Amino acid sequence: MRCIKLVGIILLFVSSMAVAGDGKLIGTAGLNTIEGSGGGGIVPWATLSGYDTRDQISASAFITQVSLPDYRLNVIGANISLFDRAEFSVARQVFGLTSLGGEITQSIYGAKVRLYGDVIYSDWPQISIGLQYKDLEDTAVAQLLGSDDTKGTDFYVAATKVHLGVVAGYNLVWNVSGRLTKANQLGLLGFGGATNDDYELMLEASAGVLFSRHFAAGMEYRQKPDNLGVGEDDWIDVFITYIPSKRVNFTMAWADLGSIAGVPAQKGLYLSVGGQLW
Amino acid sequence: MVKGLLFIAVCGLLFVTGCVSRSETLYVQLGGQAKIDEVVKNFVREIEFNNEILPFFADTNIDRFTEKFAQQLCVFADGPCDYTGDSMEQVHGGMHITEAQFNLTVDLFITAMDKANVPHRLQNQLISRMTFTRKQMLYK
User: Fold this and answer.
1) I want to staple A138 with a disulfide (CB 3.0 to 4.6 A). Which of A104, A111, B32, B124 is the partner?
2) Do A55 and B1 touch (CB under 8 A)?
3) CATH number of A2-276, picked from 3.90.79.10, 1.10.760.10, 3.90.1150.10, 2.40.160.40
4) What is the pLDDT of residues A220-274, one digit of tens each?
5) Can you tell me the ipTM of this complex?
């Protein structure tokens, strides 16, 4: 609740500032990940979450749900993006244990800085670095599974590039990210554990084709650590995204999240709606 | 591990698809000078109806712009033309074009191509040959 108030104050403050912005080309702001940072769906990209250019600011919000056989993840979040340079995000995750009963709540505060480039116009990919501070509120399951911590910070570097007209005339977008993390299942199961308690470098990647100015389809991959020794699997998803305008985007994906907390074969539908507020 | 390999396999497939090329020039695929002239005519009309971009053309000789921009597009598309206009730096110097204004003009150009029924895939290929000019125009 406290964080929501804080976001409200920041949003009010920012909205009173100069120019609200939608000066980027449609689609180039990307989407919002389940951890709040701008990106694809499960992988943070070098793109910032809003359509602001270097003279503008923007704010956006999103909701996402992932429905799995034994779990359901609900995420609500918001970002502000400043002068196509920095992004600040907050996300609240509620992970429902639909088979066991109960839920696990986590807040994630993110910051990202664009270091170089433009996803379309620069010769080399756009590069950003970021962090995600994660604060797990419901700690019982994490402790039961033997995790070491209930708070943690991920650090990542991401490179993203759009290549115009290269896939039989269609535009191609790709992203590669490296993440230093101790998080178990995003942090929902705590940080570190009996098997490993050190930061590990995880590789994440996305690739997609833009079939028009408004439709994209692609795939994402996210490597995961297994600190708890319960067989945490890498994640993968295939997605389609509809971006009717810079104001709103819709994404549907099929996500294979593997084994979660020892329960295998967690595959299901990922639905997300995001939009730019100004 | 399996998922990582699967991801790499799909990316490889995209790459292979990207390598299938056609031997005709983009100029021919677009429909030659007639189509380029149509796009330029539409583009001028889009600019005329856009209050943010029109002021940049206040001192522009539209007939000359139409001729030179058509030449330039022809060259970008590997057509049988020579560009005889001024450099992008000369034309845009002192205009202080912002990133948002630049992208808005790109949108107008895309609309101009849409209205001339240029297929999306050819639009992308033409734009990809134009992007290098951005750094000659922005904030000059």
Assistant:
1) A104
2) no
3) 2.40.160.40
4) 999 999 999 999 999 999 999 999 999 999 999 999 999 999 999 999 999 999 9
5) 0.92
